[in-house]
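Milestone M4 deliverable, item 7.
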Amino acid sequence: MEILQVKHIHKIYGEKENEVHALRDVTFSVKIGEFIAIVGTSGSGKSTLLNLIGGLDTPTQGQIIIRGHNIAALRRKELTIFRRRNIGFVFQNYSLMPVLNIYDNVALPVTFDKGKHVDHDYICELLKGLGIWDKRKRFPNELSGGQQQRTALARALANKPALILADEPTGNLDTSTTVEVMGLLKESSRRYNQTILMVTHNEALAQACDRIIRIEDGQINCAKGGETI
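Output delivered:
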């Protein structure tokens, strides 16, 4: 079953002679539970694509359908609620709240959603599964980079989202921690039936995913390997 459909997406920044075509007619679909790598050179459009899928930006043309909802057509408030309940984000810089301890950082997406109560047993399960339960009362600046990235992953999973978007999640990590975090992402995908789209420039990491989508000059390129549909 497909969880995500990207249909003929175009993204243009600027106007007239200042127009920049960041994405051109991008189309692909993703099935539930897939772990997909999005690769491309710097400026190819991969991060723009991830931002559009995450509802952080709006396409100039085309549709992005997640769980049957065309998110480009949602009003701002509707999109905010939909994104909070269906999409988890893992960023390269972790984006943790420095004034909150690790437990509260992880629970934050749930507490934002006023209609939901925090499932403390689930948060506990996440923290123990990711090996940071003993760090739950610490603050982000007291943790290593790998521990902060584990916290960011736990936070992304806290709302049990259908889709996780990871933008260069291992970019600031050393080799051994990168391998560890990739293992955690794959385990999360399997254990919680999460669908993951990961932007990366690391070919070795991409090869470890279920499928590779390659983008060059804003377009999907099948020529260098990596099935796209």
